[in-house]
Amino acid sequence: MRLSPRQTRLLKQTFLDYQQTSAFLERPLILNRAEGLYYWDADGRRYFDAIGGIFVASLGHRHPRVVDAVKRQLDLMTFAPPLHGVADITLEFVDKVASVAPGNLDFVKPYSGGSESVESAFKFVRQYYKQTGRPEKYKFVSRYHGYHGSTFGAMSASGTGPRKTKFEPQMAGFLKVLPPTVLRDRFASWDECNRFAAGMFEDVIVHEDPRTVAGVIVEPVGNTGGIITPTDEYFRILRDICDRHDVMLIFDEVITGYGKTGSMFAAQTYQVVPDIICGGKGLSSGVLPLGAMIARQDMADAFFGPAESDVQFAHGNTFAGNPLACAAGIAVIDEIVERELCEKAHRLGGYLRQKLEGLKQYGVVREVRGKGILLGVELVKDTRANEPFPELGRALKQTALDNGLILRIDPSWFAVAPALIAEETDLDELVGLIDKSLKQALDRVRNDN
C-alpha cells in the first residue's frame, strides 16, 4: 500500500499499539471499510478477518441488528449524567447480562471496555474486604503470560514482561505463578502438569499469608501466552483453593466471553463459577466500547446502606453504561441467544480444529488448542525437540497480509477466532488462506537460511 505524504505525516502524529511506527510505515495497512467477515483497505483490497479485529467483532462487522439498535438509541439519548442518574437502557443492559451469566453472578456494572472492568474488579474486591472486616486482604495472584489490560492495576496483574517493564515499578500487591504451558515438558501428562500448576496458587497464598490475599485472577483461555487452555480440573482446583482460603476467584473473560468458547462464558464451558467475571471486547461486536464487571449479588450488598455510612463503591467512569453502547450490548446478547450461536461455536469449533490439525503435515505445528472457535496453533522448528520458531511466525505475519488474511501472531504461535456468523465454507476459505500463507512463510525462512 502506498501512503500519501499526509497519511505518513499523520501516522507520525500518533501511536500504534505495541509496534514501532517506522516498521509500520514499511508495510502500512490503512482500512476504510468492513462488513461481516472482511475488511477492505484504502486501496480496495479485501482481507479475511480471522480474529474479529482483535477478538472483538463477535457477530462480524456492522451486524445489522446491532447497528439498528444503536441507530434507534441515537434518536432517544446518547449520554446520561452518571452523578445524577442512569439511563433506562443501561438498566435493561444490566438485566440482560445478568440473565446469561453463570450461577449467582447477577450484579452487573457496565464499563467502556475490558481494562476498566478488570481495574474495577480489583478495587471492588479490596473495598469489599475493608467493609466486611478483613481490611488486610489486598493481594492478587495471577499468571505469567497473562494479560489483563493497560491500566496500572491491570498491567500489574499481567505477566507479560515486555509490555510493562517500561513503566515499572509496578503496583505492590500483585504476585505471579507459572501457567501450565511453561511446565508441561516436566511432567508425564498434561493432566498432571495442570494439577501442579493449579497447586502453585495455593503455595503462594499460604506463604504470603491467606489473611493478606484478596483474589486470584486468570484468563480461562490465555491469549498472550499462546491460547493457553488448562484442563477442566485446573479450574476446579482453583475454585477449591479460593474457597478454603477466603479468596475471590476472578475470571478475566474479556476475550473468552460472549460465545467464543461454545458457551456464553468460559466459566460455563469449564463448569466452574467464579466470584467475578470481567468482560469486554465481543460484548458490543466492536460497534462501541463496552465492558462489564459481573459479581455475586451478596458481595454487592456490602456496598448498600444509608448515605452517612459511606459504603458506596468509590469508583466511576464517565462513559460507563453509555446508552449507545448498552443498546449494542443488548442486541449482541439477544442475537447470540436467539440464534443459538454458542452451540454453533461449539460445533464449528470442532470443524475448525480438525482443519487446523491438517497443518501438522508441514512438521512445524506442535499443538492446536483452545475452546470453541477460539483456537491457537503453536509453531516449532520440528516436533521432536519442540523448539520455538519465531522466525516462521514473523514471516507468516507478512505472507498472511500478502494473501489478504488478518491473524493474531506472536510469533511462535498464531490464533484464530472468526465471528460467530461464520459457516463451514467460510472456515474452509480461512484455513486455505492459512495453509497458503504458512507454506510461503516456510519457503521464505528456508531460503533465508
Walk me through the structure.
There is one protein chain. The chain is α/β, with parallel strands linked by helices and 449 residues long. The protein has helices spanning 5-11, 21-26, 52-55, 64-74, 88-100, 114-131, 152-157, 161-164, 180-183, 190-208, 232-244, 266-270, 297-300, 323-338, 341-357, 390-402, 424-448, and strands at 31-35, 38-41, 46-49, 105-111, 139-143, 174-177, 213-218, 248-252, 276-279, 291-296, 365-371, 374-379, 405-406, 408-409, 413-416.
Secondary structure topology:
Layout: H1 5-11, H2 21-26, E1 31-35, E2 38-41, E3 46-49, H3 52-55, H4 64-74, H5 88-100, E4 105-111, H6 114-131, E5 139-143, H7 152-157, H8 161-164, E6 174-177, H9 180-183, H10 190-208, E7 213-218, H11 232-244, E8 248-252, H12 266-270, E9 276-279, E10 291-296, H13 297-300, H14 323-338, H15 341-357, E11 365-371, E12 374-379, H16 390-402, E13 405-406, E14 408-409, E15 413-416, H17 424-448
Parallel strand pairs: 3-13, 5-6, 5-7, 7-8, 8-9
Antiparallel strand pairs: 1-2, 2-3, 4-10, 9-10, 11-12, 12-15, 14-15
Helix pairs in contact: 4-14, 5-14, 10-11, 15-17, 16-17
